[in-house]
Write a structure and sequence with these properties.
single chain, alpha+beta, two-stranded antiparallel sheet, 20 helices
Length: 678
């Protein structure tokens, strides 16, 4: 006999399964029913889930590897110490059996052993995992599976809250230490910054306005300052000439008439009057020429007055030779004493009253010069900003700003008017109506004497003003010359000074950045510390606490159904292939030809008796569907039982007490719902 073929096609497998389909369905249904029923004997377990967020700690950033961080977190969160602390809480809440204790409340040896066993059992059902892992925030979940649903709910919550409380205390401690450290760092950095700022300010004061961006700008400052020095020097020379002229006028004004003729307001203000020939008598026609040519009406009147006065002196000359010398003019005190000795003489108040002292107040020329200088600096600043497009950080703009502030301060400290001269006037003749003089002595006009004195005061004021102008210009010139010399020195040492200034500026900027960095860290620490102290949990916060579990997590209905389906198909297929392997019969002509190695010339049909045909019809149309319905009904009832057991415990109790009544009620409820829907 030939050997059976070794190669089997999928068609052959399907043919075998179809030929023994009843065996396949029966085996699959039996296994599925057994799996669904046997799952009900599996112990129910409930799983509680709690989640929390773990953010980066600004006080101590964690740069550890993920595996190291995970192991550390598991130890701190669900480790032995954490679970032992949780067991004490569970014992107080009567969620675990009381542990044996002595009279003083301490655990006995048996209690310690029981607690160790309980801790190991609880740790076996605990799991901690990172749902989200990122540098900024981690989402961590803690799960616990146990037969007791209340214990499955409480243990994850106790572990999470305990871990957050312990970690919060550690974070508060770390933040407090970090706050102290950063506070010291901020103070030290501010101290160094103040020292550098003082060094920069002193450097800028030493080289005020002398820190340009390039030597070309420094040369421009030198040229501008040299031009200002030349202008001030010319102004000072003009003021010195003016002062010299006024002093010459004062030296040449020996008589009252000369003083009147040479004071400002007359025809010849600053030019000394030249000696001229005696003027004609008062009766001469106006328009006579003096030593300087044609005269104006004012000069003509002066010449007439002067000529009259000289004529009076000439007339009194011979008389002086004959009359004894007059005594020296008496002082005001002697005159007052004589008047006191002669009370019987009637004198008026004008004869004894001394005129008040004269104080001359004139505008301060320094104030006008400072105002002009301020306008020049402002014009220069506008030129820099508008025409040259310079910003406020440009060295030239900063320099001009400082110069403007300096000039404004000097203007505020400079008085508007100054005392140029203080003169005590002691007239040679009292201010009284003219009285007849002694024979041969010319009469002195008090009004002309008063005008003479006023002109003398004005002359002294002009001299003082000119002297003050010379002094102010001299000081300004010296100041600018000193600044020019410093600019020349700076130009000679430009590169070292500039490098020093740039280095100081760089140090100040770096120190400012360091202060700002420390200050930002300190602010973050303060906010985190305040939040942790207020229990806001900025670094650790609960996201989801475990809820009471009404449906068990194990066994899983989907897994049970999948196991029943896959296992049933595998079991039924195994029975079919086992039956086919043990079957030695030949079913087809191909098998006969293969086995006997003989050609097939014809096939004799199976001779089926009526009784066999009846049995086959019964098996095909009655037994087969009946078995199939029974198997499906059994699988349906088993599935309903496990669904009610896992998801609807209350309905499962009613189902177990009376399955028929439960099915009737459910069918009636389904019919009512269908009617309502229709």
């Amino acid at each position: 006999m030939a050997q059976p073929p070794t190669k089997t096609t999928p068609r052959d497998l399907l043919r075998v399964i179809f030929r023994r389909r009843l065996l396949f369905l029966a085996g699959a249904g039996l296994f599925a029913f057994a799996a669904l029923v046997g799952a009900c004997w599996y112990p129910l377990k409930y799983t509680g889930l709690a989640r929390f967020e773990r953010r980066s700690d600004s006080a101590s950033p964690d740069d550890r590897a993920f595996e190291s961080l995970k192991l550390t977190l598991e130890h701190e969160l669900i480790g032995k110490n954490a679970v032992e602390i949780a067991v004490e809480r569970l014992e107080k809440d009567n969620l675990v059996p009381p542990l044996p204790r002595s009279r003083d409340g301490k655990l006995t040896v048996e209690g310690q052993m029981t607690r160790q066993e309980l801790v190991r059992g609880l740790m076996a059902g605990l799991r901690a995992s990172f749902d989200v892992r990122s540098p900024q925030v981690d989402l961590v979940s803690v799960t616990f599976t146990d037969r007791d649903s209340a214990l499955a709910k409480e243990l994850p919550n106790i572990l999470v809250t305990g871990y957050i409380d312990r970690t919060s205390e550690q974070i508060v401690g770390n933040l407090t230490e970090s706050h102290k450290f950063l506070g010291r760092q901020v103070n030290d950095a501010n101290t160094r910054l103040q020292e550098l700022m003082g060094k920069k300010i002193n450097f800028e004061k030493q080289y005020a306005g002398q820190l340009p961006d390039s030597p070309g700008a420094l040369n421009q400052q030198i040229e501008r300052l040299a031009g200002e020095i030349d202008s001030i020097r010319r102004q000072r020379d003009s003021a010195e000439r003016k002062l010299k002229n006024w002093k010459e006028v004062l030296a040449r004004s020996g008589t009252a008439d000369d003083l009147l003729l040479t004071m400002p307001g007359r025809a010849e203000e600053t030019v000394p009057k030249e000696k001229s020939a005696p003027a004609p008598a008062s009766g001469d026609a106006p328009g006579a020429k003096g030593g300087a040519g044609k005269t104006t009406p004012a000069a003509e009147s002066k010449d007439q007055v002067a000529a009259t006065h000289r004529a009076d002196k000439a007339a009194a000359g011979p008389a002086k030779d004959k009359v004894p010398a007059e005594p020296a003019p008496k002082s005001a005190a002697d005159s007052a004493a004589e008047k006191a000795d002669k009370p019987e003489k009637n004198t008026s108040a004008l004869d004894t009253e001394r005129p008040p002292d004269q104080v001359v107040m004139v505008p301060n020329p320094e104030l006008a010069r400072l105002q002009d200088e301020l306008r020049g600096f402002k014009k220069k600043l506008d030129s820099y900003k508008i025409e040259s497009k310079m910003t406020e950080e440009h060295p030239l703009v900063i320099t001009v700003r400082k110069q403007i502030a300096d000039v404004e301060q000097r203007i505020a400290e400079t008085p508007a008017r100054v005392i140029q001269q203080q003169i005590y006037i002691t007239p040679t003749m009292p201010f009284a109506p003219a009285t007849p003089a002694a024979p041969g002595v010319p009469m002195v006009d008090p009004l002309r004497e008063r005008e003479h004195q006023l002109r003398a005061i004005m002359l002294a004021a002009e001299i003082a003003a000119a002297q003050e102008e010379v002094d102010v210009l001299t000081r300004d010139l010296q100041k600018r010359e000193a600044r020019l010399a410093s600019l020349h020195d700076l130009l000679n040492n430009f590169e070292p000074v500039r490098q020093s200034y740039l280095q100081i500026t760089k140090d100040v900027a770096a120190q400012s950045a360091e202060v700002e960095r420390y200050q930002q860290q300190l602010t973050a620490i303060n906010m985190s510390l305040a939040a942790e102290a207020a229990k806001h949990r900025t670094h650790l916060s609960q996201v989801e606490l475990a809820q009471e579990q009404f449906r068990p997590s194990s066994p899983n209905l989907a897994y049970v159904l999948l196991f029943a389906l896959v296992g049933g198909l595998a079991f039924g297929g195994g029975l079919v292939f086992l039956s086919n392997l043990m079957d030695r019969s030949i079913a087809t002509t191909e098998e006969a030809a293969d086995y006997f190695d003989l050609p097939v010339y014809g096939v004799v049909g199976e001779i089926v008796t009526p009784s066999q045909r009846t049995r086959r019809k019964i098996r095909r149309f009655i037994a087969g569907p009946a078995v199939t319905l029974v198997v499906l009904a059994a699988l349906g009832l088993a599935t309903l039982n496990i669904v009610l057991w896992l998801y609807y415990p209350q309905l499962h109790d009613a189902w177990r007490q009376s399955p028929a009544a439960f099915l009737g009620n459910q069918a009636a409820s389904a019919v009512d719902n269908l009617k309502n829907w229709l």
